[in-house]
Write a structure and sequence with these properties.
The chain is an alpha/beta fold. The chain has a single domain, classed as 3-Layer(aba) Sandwich (Rossmann fold). It has helices at residues 16-28, 42-51, 71-83, 103-125, 153-156, 162-177, 191-216, 231-234, 245-257, and strands spanning 7-10, 34-39, 58-63, 86-91, 129-138, 219-224, 268-270, 273-275. An eight-stranded mixed beta sheet has the order 3-2-1-4-5-6-7-8, with helices on both faces. It is globular, with a radius of gyration of 19 Å. The chain binds NADP nicotinamide-adenine-dinucleotide phosphate (NAP). Residues 11-12, 14-18, 39-41, 64-67, 92-96, 113, 138, 140, 224-225, 227-228, 230-233, 245 line the site of NADP nicotinamide-adenine-dinucleotide phosphate.
Length: 294
């Protein structure tokens, strides 16, 4: 019996790591498989599909601004209608901040793209993942509780639902917007709570689906690509010697094409290794004391 075509989708695929993931998927998947390069710039998507028209798998462009509340669900439904489901999803899109940005002004849009955009993708595409599927959220090594003051750990630890994750992110965003986050225990760099929120979302969804997913050969995980030379990092550092997006994409693609390691399920993975969610010596039952009410 002929194998069903595999369907992959990458968010934020117009440049940087997202584009490298599209290229890598198009090389590693087979003829007849489809890779959806998605983004918010239609002209750029057209250029990419033209450039990659000679790849093994077929590359298609699809408009997807992850900040649009209804778009993830709409696209998941569209792919289900066209193909019956989806096999590989890379949630990669990111809104960067620059050193000169006023974090209070940008944090609303930042959380909308990077965090609520992520939970919308998880909610929309999670139920559409076929047996053997992969749902990978591109986060960062900054996305662990080690980067957060212990008094804040329980905001993101062991949450039961994605709504709770969104509420935790929303409370942090509000604290940045009204200024109460400054001078308190929150990290000064908005990327840290945001990446912790992404990793927490993956952990939360994975805890709900673990048994069933492992039985079906499905992997849900977050990943750290390591430092790369992209527009995002160029705003902050001299990254001329950092990995290219193509180089950084290799371990992420390996994760997708190798058999599932149950030890990586739901975890944050960098170069094939799990990064601990909690700091050493802080198991769940000994984590930060509960917050006072109110
Ligand atoms: N660069 C690093 O060193 C580094 C390190 C650790 C983790 N990461 C993570 O790796 C991932 C990729 O980062 P990168 O460095 O490749 O970033 P990048 O070069 O800035 O690319 C970001 C991509 O996201 C897209 N995007 C932005 N807002 C969007 C929206 N609302 N809807 C859909 N797409 C949107 C951008 O599209 P436009 O072209 O339209 O702007 C672009 O295609 C991110 O999750 C990032 O946090 C990066």
């Amino acid at each position: 019996m002929a194998k069903a075509p595999r369907i992959a989708l990458v968010t934020g695929a117009t440049q940087g790591l997202g584009l490298a993931l599209v290229k890598g998927l198009a090389q590693r998947l087979d003829a007849g498989d489809v890779v959806y390069a998605t983004g918010r710039n239609e002209a750029r998507l057209k250029e990419i599909t033209t450039e990659l028209s000679g790849s093994r798998a077929h590359v298609r462009g699809e408009l997807f601004d992850v900040a649009e509340p209804e778009r993830a669900q709409h696209l998941a439904d569209l792919l289900a209608e066209r193909h019956g489901g989806v096999d590989i999803v890379f949630n990669n899109a990111v809104m960067g901040v620059a050193p000169e940005d006023d974090q209070r002004t940008v944090v609303g849009a930042f959380a909308e793209v990077n965090n609520f955009g992520t939970t919308r993708v998880l909610r929309a595409f999670g139920p559409r993942l076929r047996d053997g599927g992969r749902m990978i959220v591109v986060a960062s090594a900054l996305g662990t509780l080690s980067y957060l003051a212990p008094v804040l750990h329980d905001r993101f630890d062991e949450l039961s639902t994605l709504d709770e994750v969104d509420a935790a992110v929303g409370a942090w965003r509000d604290a940045v917007e009204d200024g109460s986050a400054f001078g308190g225990p929150w990290p000064a760099f908005v990327n840290i709570p945001s990446k912790i929120g992404q990793v927490a979302a993956v952990r939360t969804l994975a805890a709900q689906r673990r048994q069933d997913d492992l039985a079906r050969g499905v992997l849900i995980a977050s990943v750290c690509p390591g430092m790369m030379n992209t527009r995002l990092s160029q705003a902050w550092w001299d990254v001329r010697d950092a990995a290219t997006p193509d180089e950084a994409a290799v371990p992420l693609l390996d994760l997708v094409f190798r058999p599932v390691d149950p030890g990586q399920y739901g975890e944050l993975v960098r170069h094939g290794q799990v990064l601990p969610w909690r700091p050493a010596g802080a198991p769940a039952e000994h984590r930060a004391p509960p917050r006072k009410a109110g």
